[in-house]
Structures
1.
Amino acid sequence: MRLGRAGLVALTLALSLTATACGGGSDSAKSGDNPKGLEKTNLNIGLVPVPDSAAAVIADQKGFFKEEGLTVKFTPIPVSGAATPLMQNGSMDFALLNYVSTFMTQGQGAVKFKFVSDAYQGVPKGFALLAKKDSKIQTAKDLKGKKVAVPAPQSITHLLAQSAAQADGIGKDDFEAVKVGLPEMIGQLDKGTVDAIAAVEPFITEAQKKIGARIVADLVSGPTADFPVAGWGGLASFVDKNPKTVAAFQRALAKALKVAQDRQEVVKVIPSYTTIKADTVSIIALGTYPTTLEPARLQRVADMLDQFGYLKNKLDVQQMMAPQPK
């Protein structure tokens, strides 16, 4: 994402995840086909094939979009940032947007986004720092002067690793962040190219199984407990122009997010749109799926980005929140 999950996602891009009928191109012109009076009934949704996206797939499979008068097409994207040019040229309407990368883009002033729904929240050991089993690294404090693999600089994983280092008494830049794709991290750690890895599930579980890697720091704990990861959103201009369509999309997702409170429902759907196998998804640390979009929670992310120098100016996320349906 800047989820830091491009390696996992790249394996999935060949999937064509299409709902009932055609894509998000033309609007429905006939009132008989659009009894709810939506501004647009055909939507193209950018889907990052990771657990974060589960609610949208649930909404599709259970017919919640159809109940709201929507026909959706899912277009797999490697990271949330890949949705921006597609939204700008009008070929994509909504997407799974990682909060860290989206807030950074918003802060640059070039593009304005609005979130319509929450999607995913971190849980303990869903993001973690790992070292080899015989490594002298025991805590985040031991990372000083070491090389740490991160999926991308200034990604959510990098930010969480810096937070853990600072919380353990060293500077946020006291370790060297080395860009390594998630699928390659285990091999690089095993060979000693890096001293530790900042990883996400399912790669945490895989590293433990394959090379006996140890978790030396849980990256979603203490100051980063319940850390917001991603939400569903679009360009502010599209959200403002299509309030009835937005509300229909929100209602469908709200139904799906309630279903996603049952872990088994999530476990069942994830293998259908990702490369994570059923036997793996049943044991990994899965995040939670918040049922409400709360600006105060998301402001934590923006404030941390400001604290760690990812933003030039403070960001008020309230301005990025779409009205919630009544």
2.
Amino acid sequence: MSWIELSLDATGEGVDWVYSLLAKTGFCPEIRIDRYSSTNLTNLSSPTHTWEFHICLYLASDIQVYSQIQVIENSFHSLQRTGLVTQIREKLVEQIPVTGNVWVNVQEIGEKFAIAKSHNPGLGDRMIIKTRPSLAFGSGFHPATILALQLMERHIQEGMRGLDLGCGSGILSVALAKLGTQVLAVDNDAIATQATREMVIDNNVETQVTVKQGSLGSGSDLGHWLGGDIHRGEDLTVIPATANFDFIVANILGRVHIQLASEYQQALRPSTTGGILITAGFNQDMESEVESALSQNGLRLIDSIYLDEWVGFVHQCGF
């Protein structure tokens, strides 16, 4: 069988958007991702731009392939306009190359975590989050995911019980479990909840993570975090905002944080060490609006970090 290879370069943020937009097309191409290193920067399609990853998609060369290519190209136009990916290059190949990684081998994040395909003894005492490619948001390359992981290792304590709101690929849920917590992972989208269940099994944390399709309070009425239609696989579960959680981690859009600010406060259990809200998924354009909405609902800002234009907050619910 022949294949059409579609290749493009991307930033770390762009990788997540490629996966999310592919999910909307309904196509499931074979995917290869490689990280550029300082020794192969000359291979970049645009030497004036710093690209982090090279992505190849493989579609079976059949009667439908060119209509599929057109849909994918149209889906990526917004990413190209904003400088997150390059133009797509295409060529005919006789087989999918066995060289290259189905997923980037290792991504070390913060002081405690590493995202990898399998156990790697060279990572020492880092907590390894085993991943596989999925069409859910949260590859581990997006700056917002990195910020959330860094804040989690600072503020989440063993024995806590909390909520991963908008769990996406499941990376944050698994990381929370590896920090010794009990986690309820929820997302409005069935693709995301399926990806999270798979990652939970891959990382042997099934006894610590419960996965449901749904959201906190009115979040179930807000649709897909990224816009568009929800991939419904089951009835949406509404999680009541009734002081049940020691922490909430939410790596979702800024407008959703603003909408749910009062329900965050109501869902957290106040304590001297708990009542922790970690928010990410928004940039500095939304920073003041998100902080204002949270503080007006009794959540006190105790930590914040930045990566490029992206922001991560930690708030605490007082007594």
3.
Amino acid sequence: MSTRHRPARFTALLVTTREGAVLLTQGGPRPGDLPHSRIRTHENPYSAARRLAAGLNLSLAETTLLAVDEAEGCNGPQTVHVMSARLSPGSAPPSAGHCLTPVGQATAAMTPSAASRLKAVCRATILNTMSPTRQEPLRLVEGRNLLQHATKAERTRSRFTWHPGLTPPEEIPVQQTWGWLVDPHGRVLVMLDRHGVPSLPGGRPEAGESPCETLAREAEEEVQARLSTPYPLGYQQVREHGRPPYAQLRMAALLRGLDSAAPDRDTGEKYQRVLIPARQANLLLGWGPEGDAQAHAVSRIWPPRTTRPAQYVPETGLEFTEE
């Protein structure tokens, strides 16, 4: 049988940090990509991952197959097996030629297909760590999960500009207010819709509402959250094709409690709720450099006093006490 059109097989390693960074290549033919290596004859993706890790001076405690991506490479079709690599305690720094980069900054510098792949596998590795059973690997085509619905930003090809600590000028209308809601352990609340698309609680203001009132109402309706007084972080200017620019306010507030999950009164949808350390939140959200900056700002305002991993919020909710 001819092997001329058989896809080349690669293993790529996803290494993430508690600060929300990912390990990327520097220099070479594919700078700014995940560390990768061609799978040799008689190797499988796991053995190739161990060989790749040894070459990077990384000591792996565990590897998990996150995704298989069918893509078009420089020299024809290729199949990329993306492995999540958990480092052993005390693992040495990576070898020269690689660097740790905030995930939003990384996706902004990548090709669209590589950025889509990175967002998909970062999201998968966070969700896998919270699941009691091992999840099936994603099936990607050119980095896209064909079973995953695109976000509004992806559908409209929106462009964002983050303005920390500022309020929008009068000529830019405020159309949405979203909140970074933080528990006593420095984790933020992320909501997942029925398609698994992550977001923060928030929405459009109603007539006569202040931004604080909008966020409190939306947080109660969408994720059944009770908040302290919100703190303004800044605003994000949004540009979409065919419409004037508008502003999304970003606020932060401490969580007082989460009541039992209930359907959103507007959409009828019951969202799944996740608590994730603020610095790691953009691994799940995939919001580009703007998400990096907002997550970093939240972690500076409310630095974690204890270390708690990401977790799903129980259907019955949670109560929080100051520690």
